[in-house]
Specification:
37% of the residues lie in helices and 22% in strands. It is α/β, with parallel strands linked by helices. A 5-stranded parallel β-sheet has the order 2-1-3-4-5, sandwiched between helices. Helix 1 links the parallel strand 1 and strand 2. The N and C termini lie far apart (33 Å).
Length: 125
Amino acid sequence: MAQKLFLVEDDEVYAEFIKKSLRKNYKIYSFTTAEDCLTTLKSIPPDIILLDYDLPGMNGIEMYEEVKDTLPDHVKVIILSAIDDGNLVLDFIKRGVRDYVVKDENVIESLQSVIEGSDDLYFDE
């Protein structure tokens, strides 16, 4: 059975681009707000959460902070952002976010690398 991927992205065109690129490998649940995703999280457990940082209402990092202690260890949370800012990324890491992908021309390749774990060489200690 395909892994369940929750995509939380308020830009519907961008969300459609990601869904089209990833849907052959994942069962995708799409949300435009963190609040909608939180409601579904109560009844459907995801394997992967792709979470836009800049959302209306609760932003991505606020949602992550709310759910991080309730998610099983196997759930991979990836923050997406158009902002390529080292200070922002450092803040994410301090809050426990392990995976961050910049929305650029390589976003699909970057997402696939993170999801498949082939990015781990950057995080070895």
